[in-house]
Amino acid sequence: MPFDIKDPNYKEKIEDSFYRQDFMNLMGVKLTRVEPGFVEVQLDYKDDLTQQHKYFHGGVIGALADTVGGYAAFTLTPPDSTVLSVEYKLSFLNPGDGEKLIARGEVIKAGKKLSTCSANAYVVKDGLEKICATALVTIMNFYNKSDH
Amino acid sequence: MPFDIKDPNYKEKIEDSFYRQDFMNLMGVKLTRVEPGFVEVQLDYKDDLTQQHKYFHGGVIGALADTVGGYAAFTLTPPDSTVLSVEYKLSFLNPGDGEKLIARGEVIKAGKKLSTCSANAYVVKDGLEKICATALVTIMNFYNKSDH
Amino acid sequence: MPFDIKDPNYKEKIEDSFYRQDFMNLMGVKLTRVEPGFVEVQLDYKDDLTQQHKYFHGGVIGALADTVGGYAAFTLTPPDSTVLSVEYKLSFLNPGDGEKLIARGEVIKAGKKLSTCSANAYVVKDGLEKICATALVTIMNFYNKSDH
Amino acid sequence: MPFDIKDPNYKEKIEDSFYRQDFMNLMGVKLTRVEPGFVEVQLDYKDDLTQQHKYFHGGVIGALADTVGGYAAFTLTPPDSTVLSVEYKLSFLNPGDGEKLIARGEVIKAGKKLSTCSANAYVVKDGLEKICATALVTIMNFYNKSDH
Question: Using one digit for the tens of pLDDT, what is the confidence trace for B4-61?
Fold first, then answer.
């Protein structure tokens, strides 16, 4: 489904906003792809990101899912807008057992006030990608309001 | 609703497990209350935990909600058991604008295979507690399986 | 938490709207309580409402939860407004085994654009009420728009 | 993703179970496709299925989503098994404005104890299909237990 691009500088907007999230920097998340209605991030394993069985913590996976959902919606809003998560729902499918996490967010419906996004998280082990969580994310769009 | 306590050492079990989650230590989360079917954690503000508007990141709030849901369920399982999050759903109610987060998880239904928990997150600003998110968390219980 | 009442005729508004939902009439749902930020409905058992084990169908329980969430939010909006469900999440806690369902919706946060509600469904068996499902419901408020 | 078929009579099993749900018959839902890990149902418009604006009621849409999620999981379980919905989360994307609803459920992860399914509902207007809701559904599998 081709999306209408309202901000020609959406890539710069997303990159600028993304790295102003100190929590993403604390975890070490990298923004790896930005397309209209789509965002991908990656995160290498480190012990600091684990739960008690030394897998990626569910909270890390949830944070990535929430983030890629929000930024996927943000690719489609006009200049001088910002977004906020309203809610998300995350189902864990497989343990976060691997050397890297990849999360991909995609807009399902870009509404005026609200956007609904799907977000999937994958764990990479020995180079093989396996889905570890899937989420639905509701995002509210705010206009005439800076993201800064 | 009074719960049946199957592990007399549930407090030690929770404390031991909680601090083996490196991700909780990275964020600086403290376990502040453990009761049958109930767990509370607290987390002081630091820049490392913020999103682009310098509020607590939604991913931090979600991680706390997921965690207190899981540990609330874990207070009620027998020795030699462990728990895993199946899924959670989180609604954001107010921005995470304050000096501290408190999250409280509570078991709604303690089933044999699955437990359903409610988790609420509060942000404390100038000493006043305000709800910032509410979640429902589904937890799977595993028996004859170590948490280590 | 006391709510601000913006429509003094909120009870009439809810009753009028509720019974214009043909699907509620098909199932036989009765609106039994309307308070600021709170709505209760009841539904007597009949075979037509069952799943394959002859319990109340999960879809019936979900429909009641969605409905009481929406109407709880609608009690708090001004005249010339209407509401729409954005999303809901429902956890089943016990089978719908009984002679009656009761669902109660309650506003957790009454926002300008969105309201977040909690909805619980109870099954009554031999006169005893038991929770069978709990839900979180997100409702969008529309102003200067008729509910008709 | 090809699924392992554990019950060669899965189609008959699903059809038999589906039409024993009196609530589906009350609404008039037809089971239109059954594949391994996939189920589709259809429902023609009638006034009895509407909310106050005469669109398909959200509760109807939710009931279909829940149902196709559960039956998609049920296609993959062995003989002498049954399934139960644990929880579902549904996001409404467009109003249920049309002459027919179609809901399609698909297994994302077929686990031993739990299966996670995605369910999408479409409204058909003037012959054109448009997505109206998307859901994630968690299903519990029970073995050595009859569906009757």
Answer: 999 999 999 999 999 999 999 999 999 999 999 999 999 999 999 999 889 999 999 9
Q: Touching check for A49 and chain B: CB below 8 Å?
A: yes
* pTM recorded for the entire structure: 0.96
CA–CA gap between residue D130 and residue C41 (Å, rounded): 32
Residue B79 CA to residue B11 CA, distance in Å, equals: 12
How far D20 CA sits from the closest chain C CA (Å)? 5
Taking the C-alpha atoms of residue D32 and residue D101, their distance in angstroms, rounded to an integer, is 12
Q: Do C136 and B89 touch (CB under 8 A)?
A: yes
Comparing CA positions, the residue from B98, B106, B6 lying closest to residue B55 is: B98
Q: How distant, in Å, are the alpha carbons of A92, B131, D114, D135 from that of B87?
A: 6, 21, 11, 13
C-alpha dihedral sign at C53, D45, D135, B37: negative
Most C CBs within 10 Å, among B91, B94, B109, B114, to test the C interface: B91
Closest partner residue to B87 among D87, D113, D140, by Cβ?
A: D87
Q: Coil, strand or helix: which one is C73?
A: helix
Report DSSP letters for B89-132, one per residue.
EEEE-S---SSEEEEEEEEEEE-SSEEEEEEEEEEEETTEEEEE
Taking only the tens place, the pLDDT of each residue in D28-69 is 999 999 999 999 999 999 999 999 889 999 999 999 999 999
CATH number of the domain within which C85 lies: 3.10.129.10
What residues contact C44, with CB distance under 8 A and at least 6 apart? C28, C99, C100
Q: Tokens 């054109």 identify what position?
A: D128
Whole-angstrom distance, CA of residue A136 vs CA of residue A117: 6
| Segments forming the whole domain that contains residue B60 | 10-143
The DSSP code for C46 is: -
**Residue at B84 is within a domain:** yes
D92 is a domain residue: yes
**A86 vs C: CB within 8 A:** yes
Note whether residue C130 is domain-resident.
yes
Q: Which stretch of DSSP H or E encloses residue C139?
A: strand C128-143
**What does the alpha-carbon distance between residue D30 and residue D19 come to, in Å, rounded to a whole number?**
9
The ipTM assigned to this model is: 0.95
Number of separate domains in chain D: 1
Nearest-angstrom CA–CA distance, B60 and C88 = 23
CB–CB of D52 and C88 under 8 A?
no
